[in-house]
Amino acid sequence: MSSPTSDGVRRSGNTFLGDCWVNFKRWNLKAVRNPFVLVVSLVQPIIFLVLFTEVFGTVAGAAVNQGLPGISYETYLVPAIAIQVALAAAITSGVGLVNDIENGMFEKVLVSPMNRTAVFLGKTAAEVFRIAVQIAIILGLGVALGAEVATGIAGAVAIVGVGVVFSLWFVAFSNALAVVTRDQESTIIGANLLQFPLLFLSSAFLPLSTLPDWIQTFARLNPVTYGVDTARSLMVDRDVMTVLDVTTFGGTLDGVVPGLVVLLALDLLLGGVAVYLLSRASSSDVR
Fold first, then answer.
1. Is pTM, for the whole model, over 0.85?
2. Distance between CA atoms of residues 210 and 212, nearest Å
3. Helices (H) and strands (E) in the chain, counts
4. How far is CA 115 from CA 11, 21, 68, 147, 278, in A?
5. Pick from 161, 194, 163: which is nearest to 177 by CA?
6. What confidence tens digit (pLDDT) does each residue in 79-111 have?
């Protein structure tokens, strides 16, 4: 059981992990009862995967082969779609929080004795679980369309892990946006406004060397580039990190480790911001 706080008030009858587990179950049950959101966040990336490979596969495949000989466009594209799934699913995180704010559930949680960091971590864990399942579905569909995971099953599991690590910063961002705006439409617009520029101004769909200089400059600061290049290095079993030149680890790890370091740093930064904003929220100013 948790110990009393300095003011002598016991915050919760559960442990910290118990509070996390309660929130993990609640958000998964909420998702199961509203499967429409899950389906929509998965359908859009599937449409991208099918349309891009069928419509642009021949043209884009030639550009890909200039930098990565012997790699099909399906194999090149699947890591990008996996990251897109993580991005699209992470957007719904903030929307769910706004929904809680609007129906009064968030206020009930704030006045409960649960640890507020545990509230955020339990909610995030539920969303990460769903994102992992969705990325696994995309990988399976990509293989069915002709993509190859050169690192095998272990590599596929690692790609799911990269997608999860990537999603955390945007989950934190969308939750912070939800606490600030406290409005469902504003949160959706704000999160979606970033989604497509981040995707297209990166190495997701074409090699950076084939894109204009200003896009290459933006891509070096774009988290999507680090997520896609990290997942793609695992997909083709070679270092394809285009924005960092690291030779410390050797082979594929030179494309994986730097990307993970950048993404984890971003996760910690924005996760800290989200927890801070949730901790500052009080029942008196949430309506």
1. no
2. 7
3. 11, 0
4. 7, 12, 49, 44, 11
5. 194
6. 999 998 888 888 777 777 877 877 778 777 777
